[in-house]
Amino acid sequence: MNRGKIKTTELLFIIFFSNPIILWALTRNLLLSFSVTILSIIFGVIVKKVTKNDNVIFFYINLLFIGFLFVSAELIFNTNFSEYIIKDLYDLKGDYYFNKPFLKEKFEDKEFTVNYITNKQGYRIEEHINPEITIDKCDWLFIGDSYTQGAQVNFDKLYSSRLFEKNPNKIIINSGISGFGLPEEYYYYRNKGKDLGSKKVFLQICNFNDFMKVEKREYDISDYLMQKSNFVRWLLWGFKYENPTELPLGRWTEPFFNSNENNELYNIFYKPSSDNKRKDSLNVLKYIKWFKDETLKNNSELIIILIPTKEQISSKYFDEVIDSFNLSKNSFDMEKPNMMMNKICDSLGIELIDLLIPFKTSQEFPFYSFDEHLNEKGHQLLANEIDKFIKKRDSSKLPSSIGNQFIGNRYPNEYSANKGIIYQSYRDGNMELFIGDSLLENKTRITFNNIDESHPNFSSTLNKLCFTQGDQSEFNTEVIISDLNGFNRECVTSEENIFGAIPWFSSDGSKICYAEYYVDSLGVFSLPQIVIKDIKSKNKEFITSNNYESWRPVFSSDNKYLVYISKRNQGQFDVYLYDLLTKEEINLTNSPYDEWDPNFSFNSDKIVYSAYYSGNWDLFEYNLNSRKTERLTFSLGDEWDPSYSKDGCKIFYAADYLTHNGIYFIDKNQ
To answer: What CATH superfamily classification does 401-667 receive?
Structure first.
């Protein structure tokens, strides 16, 4: 008998215990399932051939059997007991963990219902923001535990989002993760957060549990198995994590415990000390110093936010733990962690935002009644205090945001002085047109269909709209004129194989300018050229050649000039001014970077435009009298689509700040 040849029964056992059907049912990956089975067979054949030992192949088959039991248990659990599956929200990253990408969860509690959504990197975002966005930079980075994560409020109610409302030219990223302690926060910043290049790093610390068990967490095999297996996660969850309903008061009360021994070991407020607490205090200092050193390496400023506990600001909750746990009030110093953090920050030269007094004196309670976290009022209060801190150090004028900051509002144009704005916004899978009041608090949707409508412009003389209609990505767009309600449409580019985009009325309503292009018999599109069309006679005047690409024409208010962008000599777009009387064209910018979206001021003495000057789009203003250019924005985000208000006091524009996007304005009188 050939002892190196695998037996039929052994082969059948290998196939059965690496069953591709069961693997496919679990993974839904046909290639992976059959690959595992084939590799198991190949490995078994090699083992038998090399060892020529029945005991070794028997051991190998038993290993496959154990794996088979595990896979079968996972499949049965997922199929028949799905209601017991505990959601796994985090990926282990070595020294820390982080949100899984593309989460779309709903957290429901007796005190809140929250949508929890993440982008492809695991950063929390609002539900209307594209999860495919890449967050690769920010002005301010917030790092913390569940108090910063804020899974008890929706994204727009987070203190970081509320802070953006007060500072709407900053990219603000919230990287709070439930369960983070100082070690995880430090390793997250060192390994990942620093790459965002933030100028300010806000480290949130809470007296709830950030002063206890301050040590680097070591992850074992059970942590990795729990991450990969629903069955193992359910099996081990009760051993690793406490259920709040089984806690002595039915809620988390850390750092208060129902025994003097545990309070002495862990409670920062408890006066009697211990080796554990002394070690924790030293580790708090160590990690904050490491954090400060790491931010200095990255040219960032570290600012600490210290959040108090319920028991510090409410005698009701303090008395509850004291009475329920049979403790003595005299054994506690309820300002100890705040004094300790003040001392640490003073010694290391770190700014501290201590929320104890603001939370204590607030007329509205900042925490939920049962849950230990901040409610919406608490997040707003925290944002207010951070903003006060920032404004004391920097009183620079800021733009203002108007309308929703998550649904892609763009191309604002004031259609009536200080009364209303016309703009485009993403709805029902495509761009639609809207009219709103000056703050976009009240708005009316103009268009309702499955076609993109964009770049709206309004003629007060005609009381009509013009806009782009169609798929811009395919260059299949037309120029449309309609009533203010979107009805009675007239296609300006109605000729066969002719297309157009981004129109603008002359101030007297007699003409319309736009970019026009055509498609030839081979299906090749020409380069767009600037056209002026008389609305009544239909006569067209070509302003630019189709030998180069030109877009976005706008009439001056006196109808003497046209401004547009054109790509000529250096391969990028410059802003050009065209005199409609002399037919003279002037390159106003002649720069090595792209300019876009030019627009005249109401008295036609200035032109505002967007330029890709330093790796992102910022706004600039060109004075036609002095021939000087002024930079208007200096953010990390993209500002574009600018237009002046009728009185010349404001510049409206759209902007994208990664987790927020919408319409903003600069008040030139400030």
So the answer is: TolB, C-terminal domain (2.120.10.30)
